Here is the input.
Amino acid sequence: MRLDSNIYTKKIIMKTLLLFIVALLQTSLIFAQNSGTDTELFIEVAQQGKIVVYVNDEQVGSWKGRFRFYDVESTAPTVIIMRNNRQIAKTTLSLTRNSRTIARYSGVNGLKVVKTLPLFDDGQYALDDWDGMYDGIPGRPARPSRPAEPGRPTRPSLPRDNIMSNQSFDQLLNMVTRTDFDNGKIKLIKSALNSNKISASQLTALVKVCDFDASRLEISKSAYDSVVDKQNYFKVTEAFEFDFSKDQLMDYINKKASK
Here is the structure.
């Protein structure tokens, strides 16, 4: 009788142990699926300024308009976009697992998913593939021109300022950042702006890269004629460390505006 009881007890123990192992494997599988996800979200913001993008609890700030989020846990994250400390967009996006979702924000269309891209190309991880999203990237089709209506005079084309594209500005900012000394940074910026126009926000980003207020002031003054939105030129003062330098720049702006 005692032998039968021992066998029964061993069966109960083995069954309990087996159930525990199965539960442990299921938990490990669920954890593996939820952690280590290969879901990425790349967002492009067309507007200029100090932009901060929130994807659930993660945030990325930049002046350059490109935001990369890796290992996004949720396939339906809430995205909030802040511009100069003011919320300009809040929406929920639908993402695809094991892929990179490209989204673009503009003041007209809001935040929209443009396309979904694979993470690997011929077995290689596509580290920074935006698939031609940025203006000026080869391969992006040009917008077709609208044919003139019969009997309607053709509107003459207006001369456009040679405004630096977002891609070119990113390249310039990276080059200036990699330059060691302010003298070299000043020469590089002045050379680039001899034949290009930029916005006040872009100039602010360039000025911030310099180490000293004297260099920042020199660049700010020399670049005044290259800024297309001079009504926003006062924003450049954000890049200065000392009030004395800010006052000097504002005096310079007032003199230029009064001429």
